[in-house]
Amino acid sequence: MTPRHIALALLVVLIWGLNFVVIHEGLAGMPPLLFVAIRFACILPIMAFVPRPRVAWRDLALVGLLMSAGQFGFLYSAMAAGLASGLASLILQAQALFTVVIAAAVLGERPRPIQLMGMGTAMGGLFVVASDARGRHRSSASCCVSRER
After folding, report:
1. Rounded-to-integer distance, Cα 66 and Cα 85, Å
2. What are the tens digits of pLDDT across the range 42-65?
3. Mean pLDDT, rounded, of the chain
4. Which of the two ends of the chain, N or C, has the fewest CB atoms closer than 10 A to its terminal CB?
């Protein structure tokens, strides 16, 4: 990769990370579903300059409803209920794993070995994060219980 490509990749990482901080702060003063609606309303003017994919309107609306409104509606609601921003970003990226599995099941696509290795690494990382979060939750709860006694 060229230095320019590396810089652009790092810029994406920075924007992605800051995105969840902005969501977290925005949810402090706004209902989650209203915040999602505003997020997507901000995209409407940009849509005039981006060509529409060559798919049926019904399919486009279904993907928009499920992936955008549904996925982000649940995400923002979970964050409003207390899901940490960092964990939210990891959970959202788990969609890549589901996409590969669904593509294999529905479209008959077969992942290559390198993709399977990447999926395994990603799943391992998610399990490590999930087990650490459960462990900290249990230990902090037991810590508080023992203090109360």
Report:
1. 21
2. 888 988 899 988 999 999 888 888
3. 84
4. C
Nearest to 103 by CA among 81, 83, 119, 125: 119
Which one-letter DSSP state was computed for residue 42?
Answer: T
Contact 83, 130 (CB under 8 A): no
DSSP state of 56: -
* Residue bearing tokens 């921003």: 85
- The answer to whether the beta carbons of residues 76 and 33 sit under 8 Å apart is yes
Token look-up 């990370």 returns 17
For residue range 103-142, list pLDDT tens digits in order: 899 889 999 999 899 889 988 888 888 787 655 554 444 4
- Tell which wins on pLDDT, 77 or 132: 77
